[in-house]
Write a structure and sequence with these properties.
By secondary structure, the protein is an all-alpha fold. It has 3 domains: 1-39; 83-107; 110-151. 91% of the residues lie in helices and 0% in strands. Pfam families: DUF3618.
């Protein structure tokens, strides 16, 4: 029997076998690549972090834009006399707060001022851990509160 006769009987030729092996290798390579991508937790985390950052930036931008629009709308609809009175009241509050702050600073002992200054600097230097800790505390309290309601 010749090669053509063997093909019609269902027996593959060596060339067909090579092609089949090559296709299988390609499929296995693609499967391995897909499995490697799924198991790369670090890369997935980076992708998700980037996506969340992008969403947060977009949301923040939208919020700022809406807040600016709302502020402008309120300003446009507020009578001039009321705006002037508000500006005067705000200036008076700033002046009173400044005087109160100066009074408190004058009456506070120097060691206490130094400690509070160091604490404020430490808080500014460690904002991210403080924010994360606060978020965890809030989440804990919300979970605890919701569990209390379910009982």
């Amino acid at each position: 029997m010749n090669d053509e006769a063997q093909n019609t009987m269902g027996t593959p030729t060596p060339e067909e076998l090579r092609e089949q092996v090559e296709r299988t290798r390609d499929e296995h390579g693609q499967t391995l690549d897909a499995l490697a991508a799924k198991s790369d937790v670090k890369a997935q985390g980076k992708e998700k972090t980037a996506a969340v950052k992008e969403q947060a930036a977009s949301a923040s931008s939208q919020i700022r834009e809406k807040a600016a629009q709302a502020a402008q709308l309120i300003k446009d609809r507020t009578p001039d006399a009321l705006q002037e009175k508000t500006a005067q009241a705000a200036a008076q509050v700033r002046e009173t707060a400044s005087r109160a702050g100066q009074f408190a600073a004058d009456r506070t002992p120097d060691p206490l001022l130094e400690k509070t200054d160091r604490a404020a600097q430490a808080a500014r230097a460690n904002r991210t851990p403080l924010i994360a800790g606060g978020a965890l505390l809030i989440a804990f309290l919300l979970v605890r509160r919701s569990r209390g309601r379910n009982r």
